[in-house]
Amino acid sequence: MMEVDGTYYVGLSARTNREGFEQFKAIAAQFNHPALAVPVHDFLHLKTGTTYLGDSKLLVTGEFVNHPAFANFTQLVVPAEEAYAVNCINTGNGVIMPTGFPVVKQLLEDHGFPVFEAAMSEFEKIDGGLTCLSLRFTAH
Questions:
Q1: What is the extent of the structural domain holding 108?
Q2: Catalytic one among 33, 67, 111, 132?
Q3: In which domain of life is the source organism classified (predicted)?
Q4: How many structural domains is the chain composed of?
Q5: Beta-carbon contacts of residue 100 (< 8 Å; ≥ 6 apart)
Q6: How many other C-beta atoms lie within 10 A of the C-beta of residue 72?
Q7: Residue 132: active-site member
Q8: pLDDT digits over 50-104, tens only?
Q9: Is 45 annotated as catalytic?
């Protein structure tokens, strides 16, 4: 699931089916938050192929490039050979991304994001990404 300004984008995959999405959508609606289903075919989950960076900018790769659900975003397209680096985290002070992906690093820097690299090679071997290894809290 990816939250963007109060809207929840929920990947439909082997991990989250339509029934689970509909239950979540009903709960989110109680709090006036829309939820949109995004079918996921080629990735483990939604945020393996797309990450919201803020300021209407979205890292995308593979099946999510030019996806209709993301038509209102500026898409920063990541080539297939660097797809693992799509799973990154914008902390508000910069983007934490895996080490070793120079095209993605340059893409982020070209769009004004300070970049902080983290060694992820051992986690990459088991399909673990930065968002899988993080707990984030927002103060309201």
A1: 43-133
A2: 132
A3: Bacteria
A4: 1
A5: 117, 121
A6: 9
A7: yes
A8: 999 998 999 999 999 999 999 999 999 999 999 888 888 888 888 888 889 999 9
A9: yes
